[in-house]
């Protein structure tokens, strides 16, 4: 049985991962559950899955968690450093990383150094520290298995293929809720509208990233590091139905694709049980219901974040880290109604121009870059704050 440390158990990916684990009690077990503020849900999950350890990253929630599980022999830890520590535990086979944003970096580094297999949902980790993470994985013989549906698709298309024969990767994108909005309409987008994705039910941060296309930009960077391709070999293609999860074109022009309904359960299960393919209860794709699969080019005039992400990865160094920190900061501000939807790209671009560039950043440089970028972005936000 594979023992799993589930980081972000109370989130969208985390709860779907528990659906899978519930269905595969002979193959998958829970060693640790880690979350942040939703302690009631964490207690409920721990009562069902009986992990060895339950962790809340929020130290102020320790008492509540301890109290909720006091009749069970479950160790209770608190604090983000506790999460970094728990992933190193000997019995763990897979660390399922589904925290959101920068916070995932440190526990991922600890897990890699301990040689654990990482089932990676938290794409921001590869965005902000792709070189460091892939080097650590190599050095410690740790495997990174993608959970993002697009990268899971690419990973599946590449099985049995010689990586040198890859011509390009075609990353599909739904286009988000504002695919057909004009520039004028985009000026008046509300957070309520931005939080409604047409095809996927996800956490707030990634839902906003999908609406701005930053999510796709991040996935370009993620693909570069996971599959060792150059940004020029990655094409983004809008495919509103989200049925083809991504494709790989080979040098002989043959294209392989992976298809399925838009449901994260499948890529999560595949990452947790790889290289096995298990029976599942998921609804399968019925082509009668999807007789029209359509494709279009992304519009980078209305959705500038995609170009910003390509620019960041072309520059390399700490620029993707700047991109990520600025993006997390503007999303917080947008969700607090401080800035408009449209202002987000402007502020990120300005921050990328004004934050110090480091060509070969160390881990410490990345930590500092993240902090400085958040300060610079916050100043830009104040200048453009909605009255
Ligand atoms: N959702 C999807 O369909 C999807 C698809 C592909 C990739 N991803 C990626 O997967 C990651 C997770 O996405 P999600 O949609 O599952 O997010 P989510 O629903 O917002 O869940 C985030 C999880 O992280 C925890 N968390 C948040 N802040 C934390 C902190 N400071 N310290 C420790 N834990 C913290 C939350 O705990 P509490 O809830 O207890 O506060 C929650 O368990 C993201 O990087 C996203 O890009 C998601």
Task: List descriptors.
Rna Polymerase Sigma Factor, Chain: A; 4-stranded mixed sheet; globular; 16 helices; EC 1.1.1.267; 387 residues; 45% helix; Rossmann fold; NADPH binding; binds NADP nicotinamide-adenine-dinucleotide phosphate; 11 strands; alpha/beta; 2 domains; 7-stranded parallel sheet
Report on this model:
It comes from Azobacteroides pseudotrichonymphae genomovar. CFP2. It catalyses: 2-C-methyl-D-erythritol 4-phosphate + NADP(+) = 1-deoxy-D-xylulose 5-phosphate + NADPH + H(+). Catalyzes the NADPH-dependent rearrangement and reduction of 1-deoxy-D-xylulose-5-phosphate (DXP) to 2-C-methyl-D-erythritol 4-phosphate (MEP). 1-deoxy-D-xylulose 5-phosphate binds at residues 123, 149-150, 174, 197, 210, 215-216, 219. This protein is an alpha/beta fold and 387 residues long. Helix content is 45%, strand content 15%. The protein has 16 helices and 11 strands. It has helices spanning 12-23, 39-49, 62-68, 80-86, 105-113, 123-139, 149-158, 183-186, 191-194, 204-212, 214-227, 265-273, 305-315, 319-335, 343-354, 363-383; strands at residues 2-7, 28-35, 53-56, 75-78, 94-97, 117-120, 144-146, 166-173, 234-238, 244-250, 255-259. The strands form 2 sheets. A 7-stranded parallel sheet has the order 4-3-2-1-5-6-7, with helices on both faces. Helix 6 links the parallel strand 6 (117-120) and strand 7 (144-146). 47% of the residues are buried. Bound molecules: NADP nicotinamide-adenine-dinucleotide phosphate. NADP nicotinamide-adenine-dinucleotide phosphate is lined by residues 8-14, 35-38, 57, 80, 98-100, 103, 121-124, 148, 200, 202-206, 264. Residues 8-14, 35-38, 57, 80, 98-100, 103, 121-124, 148, 200, 202-206, 264 line the site of NADP nicotinamide-adenine-dinucleotide phosphate (NAP).
């Amino acid at each position: 049985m594979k023992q799993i440390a589930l980081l972000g158990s109370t989130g969208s990916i985390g709860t779907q991962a528990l659906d899978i684990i519930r269905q595969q009690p002979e193959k998958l077990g829970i060693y640790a559950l880690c979350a942040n503020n939703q302690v009631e849900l964490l207690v409920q999950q721990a009562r069902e899955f009986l992990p060895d350890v339950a962790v809340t990253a929020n130290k102020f929630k320790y008492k509540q968690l301890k109290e909720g599980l006091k009749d069970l022999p479950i160790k209770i830890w608190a604090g983000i450093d506790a999460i970094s520590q728990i992933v190193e535990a000997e019995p763990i086979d897979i660390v399922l990383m589904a925290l959101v944003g920068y916070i995932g970096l440190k526990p991922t580094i600890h897990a890699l150094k301990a040689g654990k297999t990482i089932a990676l949902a938290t794409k921001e980790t590869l965005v902000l520290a792709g070189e460091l993470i892939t080097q650590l994985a190599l050095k410690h013989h740790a495997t990174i298995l993608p959970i993002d549906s697009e990268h899971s698709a690419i990973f599946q298309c590449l099985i049995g293929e010689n990586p040198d024969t890859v011509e390009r990767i075609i990353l599909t994108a739904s286009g988000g809720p504002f695919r057909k909005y004009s520039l004028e309409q985009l000026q008046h987008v509300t957070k309520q509208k931005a939080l409604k994705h047409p095809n996927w039910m996800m956490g707030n941060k990634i839902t906003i990233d999908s609406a701005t296309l930053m999510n796709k930009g991040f996935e370009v960077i993620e693909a570069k590091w996971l599959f060792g391709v150059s940004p020029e070999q990655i094409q983004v293609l809008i495919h509103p139905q989200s049925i083809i999860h991504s494709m790989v074109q080979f040098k002989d022009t043959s294209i392989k694709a992976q298809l399925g309904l838009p449901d994260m359960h499948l890529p999560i299960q595949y990452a947790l049980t790889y290289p096995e393919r298990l029976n599942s209860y998921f609804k399968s794709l019925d082509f009668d219901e999807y007789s029209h699969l359509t494709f279009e080019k992304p519009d980078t005039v209305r959705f500038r974040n995609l170009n910003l992400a390509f620019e960041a990865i072309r520059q390399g160094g700490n620029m993707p880290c700047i991109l990520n920190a600025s993006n997390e900061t503007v999303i917080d501000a947008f969700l607090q109604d401080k800035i408009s939807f449209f202002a987000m790209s402007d502020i990120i671009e300005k921050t990328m121009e004004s934050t110090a560039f480091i060509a070969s950043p160390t881990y410490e440089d990345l930590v500092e870059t993240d902090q400085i970028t958040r300060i610079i972005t916050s100043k830009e936000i104040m200048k453009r704050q909605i009255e």
